[in-house]
Amino acid sequence: MKIKKLTLNNFMAFGNAEMNWADNINIICGENSTGKTTLLKVMYSVIKPFSNINRENLTKEMEEQLFVKKLQGVFRPDEMKIGRLVSRKQGSNRTEFSVDMEKQQKITVGFGNRQENHADVSIEQGEKARKYDVIYIPTKEMISTVEHFVSLYDEYHIDFEEMYYDLAKLLDRPLSKGPNTIEQNQVLSNLEDIMKGQIVQKNKKFYFKIKGEGEFEMGLLSDGYRKLSMIIYMILSGSLNKNTILFWDEPETNMNPKMIRPIVQAMVALAQMGVQIFVSTHDYFIQQEFNMIAAYPELNPKKMDIRFISLFRDEATHDVHYEMRNLASDLEHNAIMQEFDAMYDREQRIIYGE
């Protein structure tokens, strides 16, 4: 299952937007507060509720509440009033947003700015949709905290967005039965070569096993290794498969730059397996690693569809706009490259005294 298009009207920072996505890898960049994470969250909120649910026994009211609760859990607006997600304007206002997917499936959600816990939901489905999985990897890693997080979240009000809870539940799954697919083994082989070890789980605790050195607790590893460990375990448990849509919010967070290339290689391997990937980033290295893959055919022999999306604000109106290109180097508004160039210019002025 692939997301084909996202349409937003008056949703948070976005006035009107219609984004057509690549089937393989989508890289979203932009300055702070331009809506990178918002794009990931809204798509996740719309498609996650029905990813593994049989709709036949649901009433319309039950369907609506699934979407409302997901929006509340993912965005966590004040007092859980979903109307606060509508673009802030004087008077009454309304948002409507939709996600178009394969098999002529479209989910549309709408509500007004004074609405608290009700939304109008429309679901169109042409051909019978295949089962799919949806995973959101937030900025904080979760594999070192799985042991108690799910039970705490179930029993107490914890100020974590629901993506953390969803991810912890996936990591809490046991290993799947039966052999891995050829595609899974290829990805696992690449990742284990990068990490030089294997992931094992014992009593809901995760360890990194290095041949000849023993097992190391996840808390002793760097963030980069922990994030790759999450990917490996979700492949082993069957949660991350060729029918998965993966959202990854700023994978560079707390990451040693040396780990960026392995992380990108991992995402490329997943995309080749069939996973559709959405990445938000501030990082020059991530953007350029993907840009090289997109630019040079020898680095992209399978001709994966890679798309770069830049979000930026209009200096006069402060409205958020966007552009989409097949190469990051073709973006007219590229906050990452603009800052890189500005730093170079500052250094030249210091060197030459201009």
Automatic annotation (TrEMBL):
SUPFAM superfamilies: P-loop containing nucleoside triphosphate hydrolases
CDD domains referenced in this protein's UniProt entry, alphabetically: ABC_ATPase
GO molecular function, one term: ATP hydrolysis activity
Domain ATPase AAA-type core, chain residue ranges per copy: 25-285
Keyword Hydrolase attributed: no
The keyword ATP-binding appears for this protein: yes
Keyword vocabulary terms for this entry: ATP-binding, Nucleotide-binding
Full protein name: ATP-binding protein
Protein species of origin: Anaerotignum faecicola
Lineage: Bacteria, Bacillati, Bacillota, Clostridia, Lachnospirales
